Amino acid sequence: MIRTYLWERKSWILFFTALHLLWIFVAYIDTAIPLQPILYMVFISLLFFIVFVFIRYQKETRFFKRLKEWDHNLNITGVDAPDTPFEEIVSDSLSEQANLLRKAASENRMLLEQEKDDLLSWIHEVKTPLTAMHLMIERLENQSLKAPLKYEWLRIHLLLDQQLHQKRMSFMENDLYIEKTDLETVIFQEIKTLQSWCIQKGIGFDIQLDITEVLSDAKWLSFMIRQLLTNAVKYSTTSDIIIKSDHQDHKVTLTIQDFGRGIDPKDLPRVFDKGFTSTIDHNDHASTGMGLYLTKRVSEPLLISIDVTSKRGEGTRVTLTFPQKNDFVQLTGV
């Protein structure tokens, strides 16, 4: 801070120095003025000036030191009252700006909440005609027309579902209900949802569930598995997707392995980043870069760890490791 203060007061210091040098110069060239008394006066003046600068440094920087330690929460009540008129101008200006920012932040927060509520309401409203559309598609007898319609319907359904859960994530902790969840029921339900898409692509499932019960929230776990299965089907051709559960280090693991295009090794550290799409086929407009990001977001409150391994052209394996009961003590209270 002292270096900053001296630099701020450099003009005063330069003026003081130049003035005293002028006195010495005048005494030097004018023989009528004795040089030694002038040097003595300059020396005494310099001592007083150093003491003066030290005192002013302590006084003038006190306010700015407190301001520098301000916690930046738009509340300057923790900053002590200013000592000088200029500090008072700064303090008043900061208070006014902080009030304006708090007001703007509050208004923006209300607008965002309103937009979120409107979007959630819209999604729920859209689900009604979407359900009716699905029933009409099921009544079609023309299979060559029915299959692509079901596929397009499924895409809309999955996108709406993804958007709905994404908007609910901000208050996900309030919605959690941790209980014993049957993996087989959850997985088969999600496979059934993707059935028409899998038939169209010639994709089957090899399911090996040695462990069928985990401790989790059934609704949010279903969403996670839905994102992983959607990715596996989307980026695979005719092949089987292997789903198996096991015990590792006293914890239940669920592995979903496909044999699709895979992920480039350099992309693996970024697969959970929002909006990141693979560099293998960067022009793939079907990729949104949201599936694994949302899966990761949901996994954190559920205490589920995710591991992704992949080789380009050989497929991708995603492993979910579920927590033990003791890990959920704070959430379940048991």
From TrEMBL:
Keywords from the named record: ATP-binding, Cell membrane, Kinase, Membrane, Nucleotide-binding, Phosphoprotein, Transferase, Transmembrane, Transmembrane helix, Two-component regulatory system
Tagged with keyword Signal: no
Localization (cell): Cell membrane
Enzyme class: transferase
The protein's Enzyme Commission number: 2.7.13.3
Annotated Gene3D superfamilies: Histidine kinase-like ATPase, C-terminal domain
Pfam families (alphabetical): HATPase_c
Top-level taxon in the UniProt lineage: Bacteria
Protein name: histidine kinase
